[in-house]
Task: structure prediction
Amino acid sequence: MSSSTEFPTDETPAPTVPRGRRPGKADTRAEILAAADVAFAEDGYAEASLRGIAHRAGVDPALVHHYFDGKAALFVEVMGLPRDFREIRDEVDRAPGSRGSALVDRFLRYWDEEPREGRASSFHSFVQAVCSSDQAADSFKQFLVDRVWSQVARDPDDPEWLVRRSLIGSQLVGLGFQRYVLRLEPLVSAEPAEVARWVGPTIDRYMEGPLDTAPTTPDGSRRAGRPRRRVRRR
Amino acid sequence: MSSSTEFPTDETPAPTVPRGRRPGKADTRAEILAAADVAFAEDGYAEASLRGIAHRAGVDPALVHHYFDGKAALFVEVMGLPRDFREIRDEVDRAPGSRGSALVDRFLRYWDEEPREGRASSFHSFVQAVCSSDQAADSFKQFLVDRVWSQVARDPDDPEWLVRRSLIGSQLVGLGFQRYVLRLEPLVSAEPAEVARWVGPTIDRYMEGPLDTAPTTPDGSRRAGRPRRRVRRR
Result:
């Protein structure tokens, strides 16, 4: 397999003088990403190794570690997820109508995009990886905490926000599952804007509507051995 | 591997006179199910074969076909999903409060149950199978159509119901994904009744509340080549 037709290596032109920590070898990085993409798709997340990916890319394994902070980070990178969620938050905030509808529309349009050539960046691949490997699930959770929730929340430690974000996530991931994995009609054929109108009010309520957060039982008891989570009433 | 300690075979006692189409060999059926469960867990849905399952169970492959209508049906059977959803519908209808909350509570309590010994009947296994095999996804869709939606809908062909059922499904499967696959707090630790209060209003609206079902664009055009789905306004 040669990806050098797509990603010309930077070994052909005369090497430039090293410029310190950031050598600017964008092509090498792209080569590694392309190799990782094939490795994850062919071997599965659990079986793919950084050494094997380096071998595929024709680079020293140390270079993989130079560019990526481990296999989990590389996986998230290969998925092609957005890096800056503040942009998306601002976009959703600026939407003329319901913020919930704007978020649903944005979410579906993102995953509707055809996977880039040679890239397993579809929702299906994502779910498959997360299902088949605890490490992939953990790295995706870390991605959510570090790059998504910390950027979009006004107060990331607000206990009520913890509930709200998980409910928002549950509705979005469920939509993705019906549309891209089970491929159930009418959710497969519906336009993102249409689904957004159906589901927008749900997200709006999860974002800022009233949540019934009274204790579970009259005496407020919970399952033993689990931390008790109280949520502020609005 | 011997499952005969759990499921005594019916070959030990003197064979009874054959009674026609239903020989009443519940033990043989259980043996096949136990073998299928191990096969799906060890080999994955795609790799598991009816012949191999028959071999594991120590029965003639024809017997597997006698009891189960193909691999997909066997898979659904192994998942241990409920067979009669009218009961669940009636239960939800009789619930004193919100029907949506009753459904969420029922859904989570069902999947919260510990997987039966030696059975991969968890939500995680289900998602894994559906993700890794188009055939498993198709058989689950068939299960939904034949055994769930046809039993719970007042009018299964109502085009608006097609939208409503897929939205209800999206929220439930998303909750399951957060709770059992990604294992995201606070959805992991929350009691079913608590999640039911948060999510109940969503399901209530999907069941019978107003859905914005105006056409996607001012001229009502849709994506080319896809069937146009109009939904009645309420």
Remarks:
- Chain B has two domains: 1-78, 85-208.
- Confidence is low (pLDDT under 50) at residues 1-23, 215-234 of chain B.
